[in-house]
Amino acid sequence: MLLLAAAFLVAFVLLLYMVSPLISPKPLALPGAHVVVTGGSSGIGKCIAIECYKQGAFITLVARNEDKLLQAKKEIEMHSINDKQVVLCISVDVSQDYNQVENVIKQAQEKLGPVDMLVNCAGMAMSGKFEDLEVSTFERLMSINYLGSVYPSRAVITTMKERRVGRIVFVSSQAGQLGLFGFTAYSASKFAIRGLAEALQMEVKPYNVYITVAYPPDTDTPGFAEENRTKPLETRLISETTSVCKPEQVAKQIVKDAIQGNFNSSLGSDGYMLSALTCGMAPVTSITEGLQQVVTMGLFRTIALFYLGSFDSIVRRCMMQREKSEIADKTA
Amino acid sequence: MLLLAAAFLVAFVLLLYMVSPLISPKPLALPGAHVVVTGGSSGIGKCIAIECYKQGAFITLVARNEDKLLQAKKEIEMHSINDKQVVLCISVDVSQDYNQVENVIKQAQEKLGPVDMLVNCAGMAMSGKFEDLEVSTFERLMSINYLGSVYPSRAVITTMKERRVGRIVFVSSQAGQLGLFGFTAYSASKFAIRGLAEALQMEVKPYNVYITVAYPPDTDTPGFAEENRTKPLETRLISETTSVCKPEQVAKQIVKDAIVVTMGLFRTIALFYLGSFDSIVRRCMMQREKSEIADKTA
């Protein structure tokens, strides 16, 4: 009797697995596609541009610094696979003014045609205790990380809906899946991206436009080096729970998920666990993904509680150390 | 054998249940406590102030409009339980400038002592399709809902950490737990509050300061009436999945929470809900296209 039920269950799961391609989005074909990458002159953005270029896409790089743009262009062009490919560079601050961003997208579309995929990679990180961060940091991070993703997306969305095809990638962070010591301003901006993406996906799904939110871990980029200069001790200790990744790996995964139209993009086993655990009410693009989430959540939440306990004790230990040394300083 | 394992499991769960009060935070005593409520002149904020006042707290109401503040003050004072209680009103825009907010908190602390509990209830909602919302809305909602919660929290956090006691309440929304059609700008601002709160809680836990994030459903307030004026059809249909609550109920629950296996099943249920939301959106889109074609041929 039990054996029969188990057999039915296995057959059901196999059936779902076979049916899955019928309901998943049709993958986006990169050869000849127009891909716009903001923040494309360095770090993860540049690697994403390279990855798409290697697969035959036409790239528009958007960033602020013209010199870095030209350098990145040279680097990307080394990976061309045919004569027709083009890398276009446009310099603008994507968080400053929507009209400027709209113009940039118009320019890009005049030269390379309508945008097939937009990758919002422009962003920066800053960490510090809530009361130590400069007050302007909260607005600044939100402006660059969030508004800097809103404006380009808004500039391409109408055309994508008309053409009934498109991909928009938002680069959040593991700090956009859980709030960590020192990341009050940064986590808020990366959580905001997720809220935007979930709501946007629900609006554009019937138009065959798919949103991907990537949650990279700490990645070895110039941005990360900058972030580490002012990182508090507790944040550093907690971050040592996951390892630093190479931007090429991160980029490969993001492009793969974006082409497929997966809402969630994460890297490694930590990334997998964190994404399953924090999926909440996020949409799924494949039945197997949904099934995995349903089955693993209880276990992952249990593991997560142990992690949280260890983070709390790191914070407490650092606090007590600091107080001991303050007392020692006073008596010295 | 199975029976023994089940018995052990039940005993373990009971043990956890008994141990729980030992590791949970000690409840905050409201009588005589200084509670600051931003957005306290109407809606959920006002009801939270009333709820705390009824339990003996001293209230500082913070909002922009002075007339609404005075009206709210009169309404709250009707619920006093002793002669000493005070309701202080201070008018400021909490999202404008941090220094102004810092001053307001200083003033309040000079009159009513250090802040025991801060309730960040100042906020507004606006819905519309992503490409129909005015571009300025994204920045505006983020400014009011997020920065307007950051600034007061920053103004009280150092004193709370020094005194080793405090509560900070952030009022997010169910739209801060899932993104819904029409709420791109609003959900983003409410998700941001959650990211802030999770990170902040990890920082202040060893100082006995506790953060509460409230996720109210649609609540019958003036703010909600305003939100409904421009709500798209899809958003309205999807919102009918949950019922509208009374602000008094919401306030009671928030105050209660501020002061102390099923997951796989819920995710399954959630996936069905998501499916139904998607089909509402698709149906509305097809309806709209049909009527556009009909208009053209007419």
UniProtKB/TrEMBL annotation, chain A:
<dbReference type="Pfam" id="PF00106">
    <property type="entry name" value="adh_short"/>
</dbReference>
<dbReference type="GO" id="GO:0006666">
    <property type="term" value="P:3-keto-sphinganine metabolic process"/>
</dbReference>
<keyword id="KW-0746">Sphingolipid metabolism</keyword>
<keyword id="KW-0732">Signal</keyword>
<comment type="function">
    <text>Catalyzes the reduction of 3'-oxosphinganine (3-ketodihydrosphingosine/KDS) to sphinganine (dihydrosphingosine/DHS), the second step of de novo sphingolipid biosynthesis.</text>
</comment>
<dbReference type="InterPro" id="IPR036291">
    <property type="entry name" value="NAD(P)-bd_dom_sf"/>
</dbReference>
<keyword id="KW-0443">Lipid metabolism</keyword>
<keyword id="KW-0547">Nucleotide-binding</keyword>
<dbReference type="GO" id="GO:0005789">
    <property type="term" value="C:endoplasmic reticulum membrane"/>
</dbReference>
<dbReference type="GO" id="GO:0000166">
    <property type="term" value="F:nucleotide binding"/>
</dbReference>
<feature type="signal peptide">
    <location>
        <begin position="1"/>
        <end position="25"/>
    </location>
</feature>
<dbReference type="InterPro" id="IPR045022">
    <property type="entry name" value="KDSR-like"/>
</dbReference>
<dbReference type="InterPro" id="IPR002347">
    <property type="entry name" value="SDR_fam"/>
</dbReference>
<keyword id="KW-0256">Endoplasmic reticulum</keyword>
<comment type="similarity">
    <text>Belongs to the short-chain dehydrogenases/reductases (SDR) family.</text>
</comment>
<dbReference type="GO" id="GO:0030148">
    <property type="term" value="P:sphingolipid biosynthetic process"/>
</dbReference>
<comment type="pathway">
    <text>Lipid metabolism; sphingolipid metabolism.</text>
</comment>
<keyword id="KW-0560">Oxidoreductase</keyword>
<dbReference type="InterPro" id="IPR020904">
    <property type="entry name" value="Sc_DH/Rdtase_CS"/>
</dbReference>
<keyword id="KW-0521">NADP</keyword>
<comment type="pathway">
    <text>Sphingolipid metabolism.</text>
</comment>
<dbReference type="GO" id="GO:0047560">
    <property type="term" value="F:3-dehydrosphinganine reductase activity"/>
</dbReference>
TrEMBL record, chain B:
<keyword id="KW-0732">Signal</keyword>
<protein>
    <recommendedName>
        <fullName>3-ketodihydrosphingosine reductase</fullName>
        <ecNumber>1.1.1.102</ecNumber>
    </recommendedName>
</protein>
<keyword id="KW-1133">Transmembrane helix</keyword>
<dbReference type="GO" id="GO:0030148">
    <property type="term" value="P:sphingolipid biosynthetic process"/>
</dbReference>
<dbReference type="GO" id="GO:0005789">
    <property type="term" value="C:endoplasmic reticulum membrane"/>
</dbReference>
<dbReference type="GO" id="GO:0047560">
    <property type="term" value="F:3-dehydrosphinganine reductase activity"/>
</dbReference>
<dbReference type="InterPro" id="IPR020904">
    <property type="entry name" value="Sc_DH/Rdtase_CS"/>
</dbReference>
<keyword id="KW-0812">Transmembrane</keyword>
<dbReference type="GO" id="GO:0006666">
    <property type="term" value="P:3-keto-sphinganine metabolic process"/>
</dbReference>
<dbReference type="InterPro" id="IPR036291">
    <property type="entry name" value="NAD(P)-bd_dom_sf"/>
</dbReference>
<dbReference type="InterPro" id="IPR002347">
    <property type="entry name" value="SDR_fam"/>
</dbReference>
<comment type="similarity">
    <text>Belongs to the short-chain dehydrogenases/reductases (SDR) family.</text>
</comment>
<keyword id="KW-0472">Membrane</keyword>
<comment type="pathway">
    <text>Sphingolipid metabolism.</text>
</comment>
<feature type="signal peptide">
    <location>
        <begin position="1"/>
        <end position="25"/>
    </location>
</feature>
<dbReference type="InterPro" id="IPR045022">
    <property type="entry name" value="KDSR-like"/>
</dbReference>
<comment type="function">
    <text>Catalyzes the reduction of 3'-oxosphinganine (3-ketodihydrosphingosine/KDS) to sphinganine (dihydrosphingosine/DHS), the second step of de novo sphingolipid biosynthesis.</text>
</comment>
<feature type="transmembrane region" description="Helical">
    <location>
        <begin position="258"/>
        <end position="281"/>
    </location>
</feature>
<keyword id="KW-0547">Nucleotide-binding</keyword>
<comment type="pathway">
    <text>Lipid metabolism; sphingolipid metabolism.</text>
</comment>
<keyword id="KW-0560">Oxidoreductase</keyword>
<keyword id="KW-0521">NADP</keyword>
